[in-house]
């Protein structure tokens, strides 16, 4: 059940740490069941199996997660790329390599206070580090609803699928690296 009570958040007090056994997740509620369920019920197993790396936002040293994101290595069909990005890949590859932002969630008490953007910038930084050791085309995600799609569009993610209900979106690595460099 979503709690609509708003908490004031100072992003300078927020730390993002890898998910661990001490992370308290049972009260996490972002208002979207699949995102809640992953953190509450699947993140621990997914981490243990090395399927995802999960990072949680905390206020100071608190073990309670107020937000999180999960990254996973993957690929997607080149045929789904927008025409502008397809030319270099279509000749050589069937799929393009990517880092997938599988889940992003902000507890409902902290919505609309910059925590989602803060989590994404942290994810961008980690993806940039991966790029130092492995090649891939983009950071990808599947947006759950119209509201999150608009949020990702505002951050310059581009839709690359025909499913408009839950579109696949991407942020080209070249652009992501420019954002990370500009923020340093």
What features would you describe in this structure?
The chain has 184 residues and is α+β, with helices and mostly antiparallel strands. The protein is 33% helix and 26% strand. It has five helices and seven strands. It has helices spanning 33-48, 83-90, 115-131, 146-154, 173-183, and strands at residues 14-18, 53-59, 67-77, 95-106, 138-142, 158-159, 168-172. The protein has a seven-stranded mixed sheet, with helices on both faces. The protein is globular and about 50 Å long. The model has no long low-confidence stretch (mean pLDDT 90).
The average pLDDT is: 90
Order of helices and strands: EHEEHEHEHEEH
**For the largest beta sheet, what order do the strands appear in spatially?**
1-2-3-4-5-7-6
Number of helices: 5
What is the molecular shape? globular
**Portion of residues in helices?**
25-40%
Stretches where pLDDT is under 50 for at least 5 consecutive residues are none
Tell me about the biggest sheet? 7 strands, mixed
Alpha-carbon distance between the two ends: 39 Å
Alpha-beta classification: alpha+beta
Number of strands: 7
Radius of gyration: 16 Å
Short description:
With 184 residues, this protein is α+β, with helices and mostly antiparallel strands. The chain has 5 helices and 7 strands.
Give me some keywords for this one.
alpha+beta, about 180 residues
Write the layout of secondary structure elements.
Elements: E1 14-18, H1 33-48, E2 53-59, E3 67-77, H2 83-90, E4 95-106, H3 115-131, E5 138-142, H4 146-154, E6 158-159, E7 168-172, H5 173-183
Parallel strand pairs: 4-5
Antiparallel strand pairs: 1-2, 2-3, 3-4, 5-7, 6-7
Helix pairs in contact: 3-5
């Amino acid at each position: 059940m979503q709690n609509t009570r708003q908490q004031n958040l100072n992003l300078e007090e927020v730390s993002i740490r890898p998910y661990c056994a001490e992370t308290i997740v049972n009260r996490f509620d972002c208002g979207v069941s699949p995102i809640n369920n992953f953190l509450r019920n699947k993140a621990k197993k997914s981490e243990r199996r090395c399927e995802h790396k999960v990072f949680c936002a905390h206020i100071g040293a608190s073990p309670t997660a107020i937000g999180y994101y999960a990254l996973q290595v993957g690929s997607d069909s080149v045929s789904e790329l927008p025409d502008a990005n397809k030319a270099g890949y279509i000749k050589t590859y069937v799929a393009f390599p990517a880092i997938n932002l599988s889940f992003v969630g902000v507890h409902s008490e902290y919505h609309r206070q910059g925590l989602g953007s803060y989590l994404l910038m942290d994810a961008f930084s980690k993806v940039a580090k991966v790029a130092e050791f492995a090649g891939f085309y983009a950071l990808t995600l599947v947006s759950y609803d119209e509201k999150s799609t608009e949020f990702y569009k505002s951050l310059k993610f581009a839709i690359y699928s025909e499913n408009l209900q839950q579109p696949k979106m991407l942020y080209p690595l070249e652009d992501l690296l420019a954002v990370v460099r500009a923020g340093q």
